[in-house]
Structures are given as structure tokens and as C-alpha cells.
């Protein structure tokens, strides 16, 4: 097996300790469905260094990482409003558990860029990047975004704004680890990669607040030298990059154009996958020549599988190779009718991700781009004092004006949204609607009047519970 991470041995008080590697974006989930290790992902092809931070905040690698200008063959199919979850791993092949070392504290963000073809090369660095998710320091929880990844199995969620124009996009999760940012010289550590997607959407939005990557930051950007060890820290954390794009914010509308994905789809005959490799069943045979031809065909595919595996490993290539062995053994035993069924060699199906848990752990921004609650939806809301009252069961919630305090929105009985409004702020102010932790216990029940429709139209940031 190839070594997929770098082990650094440090001697501490006479005992050998293994320092954990850094982190890499290895795979992503579309509405909870794992696309596969490395599938439709641009990542470093350097197995030993895939988890290393980028060398410089102004490097072209800042766009999609080392090797990030090289398109891969697969493109994931995504619908407008879908939530993506990006998985970060200490060990890209998941040979050991872990997402990121706890010392690596800092913010996360997710950017997108519209491209002609997300599987094409040389389209990452440069202008056109807009931000759809950001999460810095959560002073309520006392945690950086990167710290929330750890109990969350390395998953970072972001919802695709529902009004974006359809087409091919690169989606770029970004982590910034600040544990060396206070040093001289400062060493802010970026980890990025890109997912190649095709977005099916009836929307037409083309966000206006875009930046060039690299170019959007340099070492003078305040966040690059932010001291996470200050007691107390100099909050708020100075966000960087463009303002967040949420559905309906600063945009122009592209001409409506129905688009259908033609690039990067999984081929119909593809029976097994590993990263961006696909296995195809060799032609059926009824004699010795055909049997050995199928065996040869299978082995050539196995070699391609291993050669294309990269940092996330070659788990499914082993399965494929075992299938080839069965064919070859059959030929040797004079069984010239085949090929045999592949079913017993298939890898176990990838488990579905509990997206609700990821969204909850990723913070409120993760679903700030969800489809708006339509005025025609069944919306119930009720204020309650979380300090003294348990959250009402959905059935018990009455339709009607809410009050200051904890507000629960119930949409079509399936989606529950809870917003905690701080004491003394008006619910009519969109800026007052920063959701807080559900357990904050700081709500009161002072009456305030507002109209449900106004509330809905003004809520830009909501938290699904
Ligand atoms: C760093 O970025 C700032 C803001 O964009 C810019 O004014 C400044 O010239 C940049 N510095 C360098 C050294 O490029
Ligand atoms: C193996 O056989 C399949 C099915 O006939 C074919 O599509 C594929 O191109 C062959 N691959 C190689 C490497 O010969
Ligand atoms: C083996 O079978 C193939 C068809 O699968 C046929 O074209 C070929 O002539 C056969 N060869 C021999 C030696 O019978």
C-alpha cells in the first residue's frame, strides 16, 4: 500500500508521539448521498503531501488546490437548493479516522464559480468566485468553524442558492487554520479543493460580488495575522473575501436557457467506481480465446484503476482485481462461459449522511441559502421562553404573531426552523435575526408585533432544527 500521509515523530518527555497530519477535502455528499472518494473532486495528486496546507495565500493553487487546474472526468449532478456536505480527512484514504488536528483553528467558507465545463482544465484560478457559505468564530459556542468539523466527522455543509442559473460550476470549500498566524513571519494555512458539479436550475442569477482567486487576499489582509491565542481574542473575526451571496442578493439575471448535463455523467455501463475510474464488464465469451481476452481486458482495467487512484486510495480496485482473478481462474479451469457475476465483488453501498445533523453542526449559515418559505406555505410560529418552557411540539404550535424570544417556524409540518431573537431587538429588523443556539436560554416573551409575511420576507438567516 502506498503511504497516504506523512508521519512526523516528535519526542515529547521521552515518549514518541505521532503528530497528526493536516487535512484534505476528499469527497462530497449531494443531499446526503456520497459521490465517492475523490469522485468529481479536484485534489492534490501528491499522495505524500495531499494534506499539506497551500504554500502561499497568493499562489494560483489557492483556487482549487495543488493540481487544481486539472479537471477530472466526473461531474456531480446537483439541483438548485440542494445541500452539499464536504468531507475533510486527516488521512485521505480514511485508513485512520480524523478530520483535522484540533490545533488547526480558524474559519471555513465555500465559494462557487460558473464555468463552461467543470471537467475541463485551466478554469480555476482567476475571477468569478462568489461565496455561498462562511462560518468564522462562534462566540456562543466558543468554537471556530474548524473545531466544529471534528465532532461532525469532518463534514462542512453549504446549500446551493436556489436562484443560481443552471450550468457547470466549481464549488470550492476553504479552511483557514490560524495556529501559526501570530508568528513572525505569519503562516496562515489554507486547505482547499474543488468539487465539479452541474447545477440543474430554473434560476437565472449571476452573482455580482465576485473575486479573483488568487488575488482576493494577501498577507496584509487582517485575518491572515489574526491571533487566536489573545485573551480575550480581538473579535469580531475580520472576515475576508466577498460578501456572502444569498438567493436574491446582488446579482444580474442571465437569459433563461434550459441546460442539460452532457459532461461527466456516470456511464450507463459503469459497474464499479474508484475515484473517477469506472469498471466495465468485459464482453461475454463462450470459448477459451474469449475467456482469456476477457481476463486481459479486466486486468488492463484494474491497472488503470490503480494508476488513477491517488490520495483517497484504491479500495475498489482490489474488489475489481478479485473479480478479474475469478475470470482468470475460470479460464484456467476450462470454464469458458462467462464472465461470472460481479455482484459478490461489489463494495458495500456508501452510507447516507445524516444531513440534518451536519447542517446543525455546521452552523446557521449552512442553510441560509435554502429556498424561501413561500407565503402560501403553511407556516405556524410561536414564541416561547426557552428558559422556562420546553419547545412546543409541532402540533401544539398556533398560527399567529410571534413575540420577541425564541421563535419557532413550522413549515408544512416537515421543516422546523427556530430563531432566537435577542432581548430588546425588533423582529422587523433583518439584522436582528441572527439565529442563536437553541439552548441559549436568553429569550424573553416581551410582546412585539410583526406580520408573518414580513418576517418571512426578511428572514435571510434561518436555522433548521
Ligand atoms: C493587498 O491587498 C490590498 C487590498 O486588496 C491591496 O490594497 C494591497 O495593495 C495588497 N498588497 C499587496 C502587497 O499586494
Ligand atoms: C473491455 O471490454 C469492454 C466491454 O467490451 C470495453 O468497453 C472496454 O473498452 C474494454 N477495455 C479494455 C481496456 O480493453
Ligand atoms: C470464440 O468465440 C467468438 C465469439 O465469442 C468467435 O468469434 C470465435 O471465432 C471463437 N473462437 C474459437 C477459436 O472458436
Automatic annotation (TrEMBL):
Residues 1-21 form the signal peptide. GO terms for biological process: cellulose catabolic process. It catalyses: [(1->4)-beta-D-glucosyl]n+m + reduced acceptor + O2 = 4-dehydro-beta-D-glucosyl-[(1->4)-beta-D-glucosyl]n-1 + [(1->4)-beta-D-glucosyl]m + acceptor + H2O. One of its GO terms (cellular component) is extracellular region. It is found in: Secreted. The keyword Disulfide bond applies. Its cofactor is Cu(2+). The keyword Disulfide bond applies. Residues 22-232 form the Auxiliary Activity family 9 catalytic domain. InterPro entries: AA9, AA9_LPMO. GO terms for molecular function: cellulase activity; cellulose binding. Pfam families: AA9. Lytic polysaccharide monooxygenase (LMPO) that depolymerizes crystalline and amorphous polysaccharides via the oxidation of scissile alpha- or beta-(1-4)-glycosidic bonds, yielding C1 and/or C4 oxidation products. Catalysis by LPMOs requires the reduction of the active-site copper from Cu(II) to Cu(I) by a reducing agent and H(2)O(2) or O(2) as a cosubstrate. This is AA9 family lytic polysaccharide monooxygenase.
Amino acid at each position: 500500500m502506498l503511504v497516504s500521509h506523512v508521519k512526523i515523530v516528535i519526542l515529547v518527555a521521552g515518549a514518541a508521539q505521532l503528530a497528526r497530519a493536516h487535512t484534505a477535502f476528499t469527497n462530497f455528499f449531494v443531499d446526503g448521498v456520497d459521490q465517492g472518494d475523490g469522485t468529481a473532486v479536484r485534489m492534490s495528486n501528491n499522495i505524500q503531501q495531499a494534506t499539506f496546507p497551500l504554500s502561499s495565500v497568493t499562489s494560483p493553487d489557492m483556487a482549487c488546490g495543488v493540481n487544481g487546474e486539472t479537471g477530472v472526468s466526473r461531474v456531480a449532478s446537483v439541483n438548485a437548493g440542494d445541500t452539499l456536505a464536504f468531507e475533510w480527512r486527516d488521512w485521505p484514504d480514511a485508513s485512520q479516522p480524523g478530520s483535522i488536528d484540533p490545533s488547526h483553528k480558524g474559519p471555513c467558507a465555500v465559494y462557487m464559480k460558473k464555468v463552461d465545463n467543470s471537467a475541463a482544465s485551466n478554469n480555476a484560478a482567476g475571477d468569478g468566485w462568489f461565496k455561498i457559505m462562511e462560518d468564522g468564530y462562534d462566540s456562543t459556542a466558543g468554537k471556530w468553524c474548524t473545531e466544529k468539523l471534528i465532532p461532525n466527522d469532518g463534514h462542512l455543509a453549504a446549500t446551493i442558492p436556489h436562484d443560481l442559473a443552471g450550468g457547470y460550476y466549481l464549488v470550492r470549500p476553504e479552511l483557514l487554520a490560524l495556529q501559526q498566524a501570530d508568528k513572525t513571519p505569519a503562516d496562515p494555512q489554507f486547505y482547499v479543493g474543488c468539487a465539479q458539479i452541474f447545477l440543474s436550475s430554473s434560476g437565472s442569477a449571476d452573482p455580482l460580488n465576485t473575486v479573483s482567486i488568487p488575488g482576493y487576499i494577501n498577507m496584509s489582509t487582517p485575518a491572515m495575522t489574526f491571533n487566536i491565542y489573545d485573551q480575550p481574542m480581538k473579535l469580531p473575526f475580520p472576515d475576508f473575501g466577498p460578501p456572502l451571496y444569498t438567493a436574491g442578493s446582488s446579482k444580474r439575471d442571465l437569459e433563461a436557457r434550459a441546460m442539460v448535463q452532457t459532461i461527466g455523467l456516470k456511464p450507463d455501463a459503469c459497474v464499479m467506481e474508484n475515484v473517477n475510474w469506472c469498471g466495465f464488464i468485459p464482453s461475454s465469451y463462450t470459448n477459451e480465446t474469449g475467456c482469456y481476452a476477457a481476463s486481459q481486458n479486466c486486468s488492463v482495467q484494474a491497472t488503470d484503476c490503480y494508476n488513477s487512484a491517488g490520495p483517497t486510495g484504491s479500495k475498489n480496485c482490489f474488489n475489481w482485481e478479485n473479480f478479474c482473478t475469478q475470470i482468470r481462474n475460470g479460464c484456467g479451469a476450462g470454464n469458458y462461459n462467462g464472465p461470472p457475476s460481479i455482484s459478490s465483488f461489489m463494495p458495500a453501498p456508501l452510507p447516507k449522511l445524516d444531513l440534518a445533523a451536519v447542517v446543525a453542526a455546521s452552523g446557521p449559515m449552512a442553510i441560509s441559502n435554502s429556498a424561501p418559505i413561500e407565503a402560501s406555505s403553511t407556516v405556524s410560529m410561536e414564541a416561547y421562553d426557552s428558559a422556562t418552557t420546553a419547545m412546543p411540539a409541532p402540533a401544539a404550535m398556533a398560527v399567529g404573531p410571534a413575540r420577541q424570544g425564541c421563535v419557532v417556524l413550522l413549515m408544512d409540518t416537515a421543516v422546523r426552523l427556530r430563531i432566537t431573537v435577542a432581548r430588546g431587538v425588533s423582529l422587523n429588523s433583518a439584522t436582528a435575526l441572527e439565529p442563536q443556539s437553541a439552548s441559549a436560554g436568553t429569550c424573553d416573551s416581551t410582546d412585539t408585533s410583526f406580520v408573518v409575511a414580513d418576517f418571512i420576507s426578511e428572514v435571510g438567516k434561518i436555522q433548521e432544527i
